[in-house]
Amino acid sequence: DHRDLHSFPTRRSSDLGVHTTGPVPDLKETLASYDLVFTQFGLTAFEEAWAGCAVVTVDPGRYHAELSRRAGFPTAGAGRPDPRALARLLADPAALASASAAAAPERAESLAERLASLRPGAYGACPVCGSPERSVRARYPRKSYFRCASCGMVYRELFEGGDNPYVESYFFEEYRKQYGRTYLEDFPALTAFAAARLDILERLLPHISGRRPVILDAGCAYGAFLAEAARRGWDARGLDIAESAAAYVRDDLGLPARAGDFLDPAVRSALGGNVDCLSMWFVIEHFEALGEALRAAADMVRPGGIFAFSTPSGGGISARSDPGLFFERSPDDHATVWEPRRTAGILRRFGFRIERIRVTGHHPERFPGAAGKPGLARPAGAASRLLGLGDTFECYARRVRDA
After folding, report:
1. Which helix (H) or strand (E) holds 195?
2. Is the pTM of this model over 0.90?
């Protein structure tokens, strides 16, 4: 019918059998008296499924529609309802009710308790600069990744709290699963890494007369780096969150070490105050309050001293070739994802100037099309080193001013 629709008289919603209400106390109990509720993915859908009401979601976009699908809710599409999908759902009320019931939570849960169980933190704000302005990089059921619009840091928000993984078993069973040997069995390889890092540090630090240069290795584990530093004449001290690791450094290596949180001022003070070098090898990405950690680092390193760390790279071949998979596989306890090209600007905020970036973790087999092709290993490896596409990197920064 091509007549002007405006020529038809306007009908009130009540004439169509539609009743509009305002705010409703105890909404869950009210909606549970209905046979079917149309809503979008969210708490209402779960509440009604739990109350025994059939649910059909009509979501604002594909992201929420995918969440509905994964949760098991019958869905009529995204944006506007799909008439055919809706007709199929309504044609089998028993199946509709069964699917809604299957999507219901297994047990009743207090919203207040659920929110209290979430990992604490300043959600919605960058952990470096505190800016709320950000863009989404990736979303997953347990976590999302964002890029800060101010400082450029990529950070994740985790929707469920987790246990501290760095207990004794991490350095043995878990370490063996990842590397094929325990941390202590890997000591020779770790010592070689330590030697290369100390070669750089000894070139960067100015000559210190009258005393041994002091280095604190935060996240020292079982002390491979500390042992090599002490062998070279450094005043080497360790800090680790795991008591068993700190005890091994003290009792077996004979070096001063303490178990505790780097962010605790009392812990840092107990290790002797200011140092010539502060190192964090694959530790910095674990700080939820990264800005606080960097301010603490600036307070601890003497003017002219060096802050050195290593971390996975958001600019490596894995992140560039398949960012979705890279973020999905990034460990949940990694709160930030550093990129070599953005590191200078971030550290500058805290009084550090980069002296050297060393890109590491080169994996030619991770280049697109190179897996299983030995002939491509050499050119892919050369490209990785030339373009700085390794999946990890080391940063050496000098403290030049107060944070």
Report:
1. helix 187-204
2. no
